[in-house]
Amino acid sequence: MEFDEYESLPEAQSVGVHMTAGAVAGILEHCVMFPIDTVKTRMQSFNAESYRTIRGGLLKMVSTEGLSRPVWGMSAVIVGAGPAHALYFSAYEAIKRTGTHGHKNGTLQTTMTNAAAGCGATLLHDSVMVPADVIKQRMQMFNCKYNSCFNCIYKLYSSEGIRPFYRSFSTQLAMNLPFHAIHIVTYEKMHEMFNPNREYNPSVHMAAGAIAGSVAAVATTPLDMCKTVLNTQEASALNKMKLQRITGIMGAVKSIYHVYGPFGFFRGLQARVLYQMPATAISWSVYELFKHCLSDSERQKENPIPSHSELLNDNVISKESVISSHCDSSHPSVRHVSQFSDNSVIPKTVERLRHNLQIPVPSVAAEDHLILGK
């Protein structure tokens, strides 16, 4: 598929395509990898001695807390990830299109545009996803005192109002802005290297997403650790440090350093990378797949294949004409026309046939009958 066909849709339609594809990709990404995310959250907690490996952490959770324990809090992610990723991918495409419109970019300008697209998309994404992350991580903790996501929302709001849902917002932005800037730049760079025509290529989308996610995850793990500390507010850690509440990114940094030292900022690194690699691979693969399928659907609506009745109405063929098709449903074509109406070929219909049959425009207008004959 050519670049223009795949990437360039009418603006009003492309927003809907990108939002739909992004929402599906986001939900699948988070749901498939949710058990690994639960282990990562516990590894970053202040009571993480029992969770030294991903496999060991999962087995311990299932054996002591039940089979469903690794997916507690998933409903919060499902509700949040759909709209968050719809906003993320639509903003990413819009900013990228605006930054590259009307001129040919150099390497530096392309990189800056991609980084700006990642940052702009993150602002919209986090405004929705941060509260969902708070609920999710509270539900993921050991000895969780909430019996459902709704119960968690109710108790948090009753005791502290809206504030706890956005307590880690600045920290999450500080983490996600560089994360997604690195993520998008790396993803686009992989495509420049291995898929310069930006064709639909599932293997490239998956590999580029995995590499981009892992690079960004390693670079931002210390900030992810701070985010977890702010979101969970573990009572045992607060008592140990004689604090009522950990507030702000500097408060989280001091708490982590006090308990674990400098290496504490990289707790859960392995789990985070192993989570992000498949998660971003799934996200980009699903996004590009849905974008590809929905784009095809939009183009077919704009340029429908002319039916037998349409050709008759346009007086392109006579009633005695015989039309047969032996192609598959995705590429139907007119195979044979036994008789034409004299001098009655409508240019509009001929152009439509040329487009849908992918026939080059002939140099002589008289060859229109030959085109219809194909």
TrEMBL record:
One of its GO terms (biological process) is iron import into the mitochondrion. InterPro entries: MCP_dom_sf (IPR023395), MCP_transmembrane (IPR018108). It comes from the Eukaryota. This is Mitoferrin-1. Keywords: Ion transport, Iron, Iron transport, Membrane, Mitochondrion, Mitochondrion inner membrane, Transmembrane, Transmembrane helix, Transport. GO terms for cellular component: mitochondrial inner membrane. The keyword Isomerase does not apply. GO terms for molecular function: ferrous iron transmembrane transporter activity. It is found in: Mitochondrion inner membrane. Belongs to the mitochondrial carrier (TC 2.A.29) family. Solcar repeats lie at residues 13-98, 109-193, 200-293. It is a multi-pass membrane protein. It comes from Meganyctiphanes norvegica. PANTHER family: MITOFERRIN-1-RELATED, MITOFERRIN-2. SUPFAM superfamilies: Mitochondrial carrier. Pfam families: Mito_carr.
